[in-house]
Design a protein that fits this description.
Length: 347
């Protein structure tokens, strides 16, 4: 991986600047060196009023960490504020979406562990250490928002539906599926980077991917604050996308969670319909509708078996060239990480 050029910010704020770099301020006190290198990724879009304070608080908690801000084509002074705060800044020439900004940060992060933090201040940087405490034993640690977090009730209601659906599909209790405050081993998340959407719901995708891949996932309760910026989230639009992504992820990693219930319902309904016509309505033949339902259930079940085998083969191939937990030492130089194969990301 080639580092971005260290260049200044033009006075006119032109969007032609794609990468900015500045050394983080030196630590003011002696802090024991962590067993891994850390990059804090902050995707930002029109958060010039808040991102500077978030950076300073993150630096106070982890002065040894690389702070990487990805400006997703902001129209305000987000890049300037981030650069002035001491962060390394990468700019998108236009707005691609929150997920695309996260993927840019993951590709350019130098740390062995990456921590994702929102730029609007809703995630308290004071909880960074609590989220990072589980890294090592756990591969992904999610800051799960508690009930007393500052958020709209409509969003809380929608998130509760997604949490319950994801819990059923994944077989694991998920208290907060959509929280963007999370820390993870970079080499593990790079296995799934091509699955992350460019818009929202990347937390949904990454959480389910880690769980279904068998990695260790921990949820740490945090109290989120109300963000300072205007939310770009739309409940119906992004909620529908989240459900589709959940179903897509389960289809990729555990297809029988979807195919088996559907096939059983169709098969039983077809059998009931056939017996009802014979014994209740004294029709001495099995109706065509009953046969169609039974055959549909059988075909869907067979499709599920085939999909399960394809998913297993796909998962085996995705992990073939990646280190196992036994190989992860938490002290590998960033230069060696750059030599690992990168997951392809479709257009």
């Amino acid at each position: 991986m080639v580092d971005e050029p260290a260049i200044g910010v033009p006075e006119d704020g032109s969007s032609q600047v794609h990468a900015l770099s500045q050394e983080a301020p030196a630590a003011v006190s002696a802090v024991p060196a962590p067993p891994y290198t850390l990059t804090i990724i902050i995707p930002a879009y029109n958060e010039g009023d808040a991102v500077g304070a978030v950076i300073r608080k993150a630096q106070a908690v982890r002065p040894d960490a690389e702070i990487l801000v990805v400006d997703d084509g902001s129209a305000d002074n987000t890049a300037h504020a981030a650069f002035a705060g001491g962060a390394r800044v990468i700019r998108h020439p236009y707005n691609k979406g929150n997920g695309a900004a996260v993927k840019t940060g993951l590709r350019n992060a130098k740390g062995e562990v990456v921590l994702l933090l929102d730029a609007d201040g809703q995630h308290p940087p004071e909880d960074i250490e609590r989220v990072l405490a589980g890294i090592g034993e756990y591969d992904l640690v999610v800051g799960a928002r508690t009930r007393d977090s500052e958020s709209a009730w409509v969003r809380d209601f929608g998130n509760s539906i997604f949490n319950n659906l994801a819990t059923y599909l994944s077989g694991r209790k998920i208290p907060d599926l959509t929280s963007g405050f999370r820390a993870m081993k970079r080499d593990h998340i790079m296995e799934f980077i091509h699955l992350l959407p460019n818009l929202y719901s990347y937390p949904t995708t990454s959480t389910l991917a880690f769980i279904k891949a068998g990695y260790n996932v921990q949820f740490v309760p945090i109290k989120a604050r109300k963000g300072t910026g205007r939310s770009n989230t739309r409940i119906v639009r992004d909620g529908t996308r989240a459900v589709v992504i959940i179903l897509r992820m389960i289809t990729l990693f555990a297809p029988m969670k979807i195919f088996l219930p559907v096939s059983v319902v169709l098969f039983l309904f077809g059998v009931f319909y056939g017996f009802a016509n014979i014994f209740l309505f004294s029709i001495n033949r099995i109706p065509a509708g009953s046969v169609l339902l039974i055959l549909s259930g059988l075909f869907i079940f067979l499709f599920g078996l085939i999909s399960e085998q394809i998913a297993a083969m796909r998962f085996e191939n995705s992990q073939r060239f990646w280190p196992t937990d036994a190989d992860w030492k938490g002290s590998q130089p960033a230069e060696e990480q750059d030599q690992k194969p990168q997951s392809r990301d479709p257009e």
